């Protein structure tokens, strides 16, 4: 009789790719919610209603009413007695506008009206950085890694998905409620509560992130690891791309900034259910792995001990990857929070399309991250890929900072280059971690990397929001905002790029000395 050889569930191609798809879907929903507010910056920082026209221009309701009334008075027309309530879809209005430096009469038709929230750029920056506050200041990401290594994937994943969902609901409640002028800690109550929701969500999203990374290493180690990690990141980027591309349209259609968040919360609910489905597979994988070990007469897998953290803390390669992660991601995710408004004011892109240009970045990475991941699996050169990506990041931000080539097509080209950089570094960085740190400390290692990365994700938006308010906002003599000069904020992002280049070079040198294998292929022949 032929002897049956016991196999792990992860040895089945179908099973491991199915597991990957399920957990990647959960992560995709999380990424959608993370970036859903970025295209709404202009709406959030405008007071009162914002009117959108069919020609894709927009104006605040108050300023539109005064322009229409001025036009009527100047042309001896009967006063339209326009009120904010009368501004509705399909209404046609005539007023004077400056076009190419000339005063002209324009006739426009309203396509939609949405409520602005009147936040300052500082408040917007504070809110955007909230994603990392609990992770960083309450050390929750650090503890999350220990919980993951001690309590396991299923417990930690269910807990973190729960946090994501709860945080999303709080954020939605804050954005859909009018708190009037109620202030807390010198900021509007709405900003504080939305930030609290985002902070709880961010804690859940990051702990889910490390859990998903550990799941993928568990199923794909020694197989198509970098491709699998790349595909997970690619699916996550679909979430970011949909958020950047669709969020403003949803807010305009529904007339309120809270609706995109509500849709995200509903999607997250489905993501939560899909993680529960994965838990069934995870249980089966553990049972099959135990059976294999027993058949091969191997002893029980050694559990995680706190003392094991020493190995992580003492590894120079680990710290270089961590610092590279901090600098590189500080130059990308926080940038995305401000990129839509950059497109409007530096490249003169109509607000309705402005979110589409930053959305190109995640779209590009959807295809390229798995391609570079597969390249790393088969050919290697991980450290080199990280150097090239970091150089590209720096060049991109220098180009955004310089006061030249203010054409929309140039912004598109530069954004595509950023998309390539944003595929190169993650596709090489994440699969490099298991080459430096063994599996049983991997949860804690990813958690520490994410922890340090979150310091950037939390602080950089606060810094940029403040810099925009104090150094980049252009005002007329009455104090009204007339535009923005993005040179200083973009120079700050370029500095992060330069740091990433230096660190990635140091990593390459350290790899040559210590032989982590970063330049070698991942797949065992
Ligand atoms: N906007 C989502 C932030 C996710 C941060 C997360 N810690 C991370 O780095 N994920 C990997 C990636 O490349 O997105």
How would you sum up this structure, described in words?
The protein has 525 residues and is of the alpha+beta class. The protein folds into two domains: 11-47 and 117-296 and 308-514, MFS general substrate transporter like domains (Growth Hormone, Chain: A, Up-down Bundle); 49-115, no CATH class. Helices cover 68% and strands 8% of the residues. Strand 7 (473-475) and strand 8 (481-484) form a beta hairpin. Helix 6 packs antiparallel against helix 18 (442-472), helix 9 (225-254) packs across helix 17 (408-436) and helix 12 (316-330) runs antiparallel to helix 19 (487-514). It starts with 12 loop residues before the first helix and ends in an 11-residue tail after the last helix. The structure holds the ligand NCCCC[C@H](N)C(=O)NCC(=O)O. Ligand LYPLPQDE is lined by residues 31, 34-35, 206, 209, 233, 236, 329, 333, 426, 450, 453.
């Amino acid at each position: 009789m032929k002897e049956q050889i016991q196999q792990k569930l992860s040895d089945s191609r179908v099973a491991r790719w199915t597991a990957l798809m399920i957990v990647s879907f959960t992560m995709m929903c999380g990424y959608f919610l993370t970036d859903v507010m970025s295209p709404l910056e202009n709406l959030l920082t405008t007071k009162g209603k914002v009117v959108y026209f069919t020609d894709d221009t927009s104006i605040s309701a108050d300023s539109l009413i005064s322009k229409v009334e001025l036009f009527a008075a100047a042309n001896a027309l009967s006063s339209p007695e326009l009120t904010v309530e009368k501004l509705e879809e399909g209404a046609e209005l005539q007023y004077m506008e400056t076009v190419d430096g000339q005063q002209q009469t324009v006739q426009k038709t309203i396509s939609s009206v949405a409520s602005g929230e009147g936040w300052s750029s500082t408040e917007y920056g504070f809110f955007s950085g909230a994603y990392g506050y609990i992770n960083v200041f309450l050390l929750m990401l650090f503890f999350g890694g220990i919980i993951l290594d001690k309590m396991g994937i299923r417990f930690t994943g269910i807990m973190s998905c729960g946090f994501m969902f709860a945080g999303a609901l709080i954020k939605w409640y804050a954005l859909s409620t009018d708190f009037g002028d109620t202030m807390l800690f010198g900021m509007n109550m709405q900003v504080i509560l939305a930030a609290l929701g985002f902070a709880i969500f961010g804690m859940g999203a990051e702990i889910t992130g490390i859990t998903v990374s550990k799941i993928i290493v568990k199923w794909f180690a020694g197989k198509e690891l970098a491709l699998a990690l790349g595909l997970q990141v690619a699916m996550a980027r679909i979430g970011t791309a949909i958020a950047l591309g669709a969020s403003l349209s949803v807010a305009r259609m529904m007339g309120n900034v809270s609706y995109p968040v509500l849709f995200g919360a509903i999607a997250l609910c489905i993501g939560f259910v899909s993680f529960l489905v994965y838990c069934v597979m995870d249980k089966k994988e553990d049972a099959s792995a135990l059976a294999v070990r027993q058949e091969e007469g191997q002893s029980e897998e050694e559990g995680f001990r706190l003392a094991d953290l020493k190995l992580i803390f003492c590894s120079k390669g680990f710290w270089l990857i961590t610092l590279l992660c901090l600098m590189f991601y500080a130059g990308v995710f926080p940038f995305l929070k401000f990129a839509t408004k950059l497109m409007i004011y530096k490249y003169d892109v109509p607000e309705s399309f402005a979110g589409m240009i930053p959305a190109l970045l995640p779209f590009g990475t959807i295809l390229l991250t798995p391609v570079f991941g597969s390249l790393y699996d088969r050919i290697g050169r991980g450290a080199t890929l990280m150097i090239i990506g970091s150089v590209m990041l720096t060049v991109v931000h220098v180009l955004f900072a310089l006061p030249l080539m203010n054409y929309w097509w140039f912004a598109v080209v530069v954004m595509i280059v950023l998309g390539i950089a944003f595929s190169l570094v993650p596709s090489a960085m994440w699969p490099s971690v298991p080459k430096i740190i063994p599996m049983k400390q991997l949860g804690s290692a990813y958690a520490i990397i994410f922890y340090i990365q979150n310091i950037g994700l939390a602080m950089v938006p606060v810094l940029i929001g403040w810099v925009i308010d104090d150094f980049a906002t252009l005002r007329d003599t009455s104090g009204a905002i007339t535009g923005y000069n993005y040179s200083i904020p973009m120079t700050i992002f370029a500095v992060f790029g330069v740091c990433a280049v230096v660190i990635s070079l140091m990593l390459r040198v350290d790899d040559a000395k210590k032989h982590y294998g970063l330049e070698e292929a991942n797949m065992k022949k």
